[in-house]
Amino acid sequence: MEIHSEQAGVLILRVWVEEGRPDGFRARIVLTGGRHQAPPTAVSAVDDVLEAVRAWLDQLLEPTPDR
Question: d(Cα 49, Cα 43) in Å, to the nearest integer?
């Protein structure tokens, strides 16, 4: 199998518990890969974390002209 180009990325997900918050946690997401690098984001809902991971994977796995 011949590989013509390499598409790679990194997602760093840092989660910490904050007492007294109704949601109970905070998450900082740092994304690289694909055609763009997004600035870090902070979220405090599980659905927002999952949405960010899915969007990053979709962008990273998007077909490019040389693949």
Answer: 7
pLDDT, tens digit, 9 for 90 and up, residues 6-18: 678 889 999 999 8
What sign does the dihedral 18-43-62-67 (CA atoms) show?
negative
Q: Please, are residues 17 and 24 in contact by the beta-carbon 8 Å criterion?
A: yes
Determine the Cα–Cα distance for residues 62 and 8; give it in Å rounded to an integer. Answer: 12
* Spans of all domains in the chain: 10-61
What local confidence, expressed as pLDDT, does residue 3 receive? Answer: 46
Residue by residue, DSSP assigns 1-55 as --------EEEEEEEEE-TT-SS-EEEEEEEEETT--PPPEEE-SHHHHHHHHHH
Grouping H, G, I as helix, E, B as strand and the rest as coil, residue 61 is: helix
Could you tell me the pTM of the whole model? 0.73
